[in-house]
Design goal:
mainly alpha, three-stranded mixed beta sheet, 3 strands, disordered N terminus
């Protein structure tokens, strides 16, 4: 992840995105760039990150296709076809895919907390808020989640983790709303934790006002 001060944010490295894309086969590159946001470096990065998460189910499909590079390309094309065309929805899909490989319940709850926060939360904040919801929080598991998507997170100087791109927060909030999740309840849970902090706590001062 990126380590930043409170005022400096580093964007996605476009040259890195270009390199990652060139590692894909020609048909996959064509399919990716043909998506509605296929000219957006962040969209391409999210899409290739999703392709890199192929799991046992994907490899079973590859074997059914006959193994070999052609079968791998065919499965990747199928995944690209299923990808949402919108940047925000693709971000949510990637987060869910990563969560399924580590701890889906914890991932969804932690990212939900980050989404309703203004500028991210520290590990101890996440542990406290998830604890109120009776969801076990593991700093090691959270580190694994962030490591899967380390170009998409930032770590502020005061220890808060946050999304590097607002599209991820917007996508998560929209998805929660569509699922009927009460954002008001999520905010209230976060505020209860914030107002349990000391008056001089920097997170309370920035998030609780």
């Amino acid at each position: 992840y990126s380590y930043v001060t409170d005022t400096t944010l580093y964007g996605l490295d476009k040259s890195k995105v270009a390199y990652i894309i060139t590692q894909q086969t020609g048909p996959v590159v064509e399919a990716l760039t043909a998506k509605p946001q296929g000219n957006n470096p962040l969209y391409l990065y999210l899409a290739v990150s999703r392709l890199c998460l192929m799991d046992a189910e994907d490899f079973q499909a590859i074997r059914r296709r006959g193994d070999g590079m052609g079968a791998i390309t065919a499965q990747q094309l199928a995944l690209v076809e299923e990808m949402p065309g919108e940047l925000e929805r693709l971000g949510v899909e990637l987060i869910r895919a990563v969560g399924q490989r580590v701890s889906l319940a914890m991932a969804e709850a932690a990212f939900r907390c980050l989404a309703v926060s203004r500028q991210g939360l520290r590990l101890e904040d996440l542990e406290a808020v998830l604890g109120e919801a009776h969801i076990p929080f593991s700093p090691l598991t959270f580190a694994q989640l962030v490591n899967y998507m380390n170009e998409l997170f930032l770590l502020r100087a005061d220890g808060r983790y946050d999304f590097l791109h607002k599209s991820l927060r917007c996508g998560l909030l929209a998805e929660l709303t569509a699922r009927g999740v009460s954002l008001r309840a999520e905010h209230q849970r976060l505020r209860r934790h914030l107002f349990s902090l000391p008056d001089e706590d920097p997170v309370l001062l920035q998030e609780g006002t």
